[in-house]
Amino acid sequence: METVTYEKTSVPVIGTFDTVVVGGGTAGASAGITAAREGNHTLLIEKSISLGGSAVGALVTPMMESFVKHENNFYEIEKRLRDKGVVTSDGMMKYVYSTPESKAAVLEEMFLENHGEVLYDASLAGCTVKNRKIDTVFVTTVDGMTAIRGKQFIDATGDALLSRMAGVTVASGDENQNDQMSSLRFEMGGIDTEKYRNYCLSLNDNFSPLKTGFFWESAMVKNRDFKLEPVFRTGIEKGYLCDDDLIYYQCFSLPGEPGCMTFNCPHIGSMKKNTSAAARSYAVHEGRQKIDRLVAFLQHCMPGFENSYVIRIASALGIRESWRICGKYILNEDDYINRAKFDDAVAKGDWYIDVHSANKGLIHMEKYNKGEFYEIPYRCLINNTIENMLTVGRCISTTFLVQASIRIQPTVIDMGDSAGKACAKALRQHCELAEFDGKGLLQ
User: Fold this and answer.
1) So what's the pLDDT on residue 359?
2) Whether residue 92 has pLDDT greater than 80
3) pTM above 0.90?
4) How far apart are CA 331 and CA 323, in angstroms?
5) How many CA atoms lie within 13 A of 33 on its CB side?
6) 382 bridge partner residues
7) Which of 171, 303, 317, 381 is at a distance of 20 to 30 A from 25, taking alpha carbons?
8) Of 318, 57, 359, residue with least CA distance to 179
9) Rounded distance, CA 397 to CA 170, Å?
């Protein structure tokens, strides 16, 4: 690859902090909230203008079901959503419903109330490493390039960006280096949801529609005997859809927004590697084309959608998986199957291995019974290269398959909560994060 030399300039240092969290998604926000609550002078750097990451920018709602005991932040987030009038549950399912706006507001309130500082519209541009420790991170803002110093750093970028910049070894993809499929989600309004629900029920569609209650979901996966597939096939015959549009279809109701649904689709099947900026850019274009076709099909062929319209398209791709760090421990399939427990656990996981494969379609493996869980060890958050950094979120140290289980919001919120506690304890003990033993973090 061709390289060029960039002109050296003096970069202003805008602050020094105990803990610097890069990335304000659900994992990073949770880590920042706890680190600040525990007394660390904490800065949260976020490239967008809201906290919540994929839950907000990529419209990833609701939170998936989880039956384990969670850490404090998870329950506080749900409580504050309810205080804002959000009906987070229908009493039948363990999904935690919200809107992107309500999730962003709650996370920001919790962080700022604990005296955390946030830097929005700031993208990570680089870092300096001295004696196996990150000394400074560089971000681009409206002010230009600025520098931030810290005693500790948390990589919550989702793509392990800070970890990679600091020289941490990473992996990506499956045995063929193909990543999970990404989505470009969107929301629609003007839906006669009861007409749509009744149509699904008339087909004996027992997969998703609930017979009572406001909250429900609907889904169709090509060649998996879903009851809705024939009407999608009709959409192809009428010229509204292409065969590739049938890869995956799923939608959920939205709390407090009658007649509206959020869509966990379309899948971008052509993008095999999520680690390319050019591929992601093309995927956005392809996703918008798919949405145009899907919306036209729904409006013309799906009962209940006759007067529907698009409310918005996500401002970020729904990236399920890209890079993963190679940490001090790699959580693997045996750990998942054996419901492994660790004395340095940071979170409990009970979501199944849920792979949206670019080559093999949906792969669902070894679902747990309620009450069963595995644990994620602290060693999956630290590495052998950088001593003063934790990595949290979907890019921790796991195999490709196990990453498809740990990536859901309840799990990464707990992981971030434990990471914040670790930062506070390590600082009080005057030890680096890689030296901290990680014990006693879970309630």
Assistant:
1) 67
2) no
3) yes
4) 15
5) 28
6) none
7) 171
8) 359
9) 9
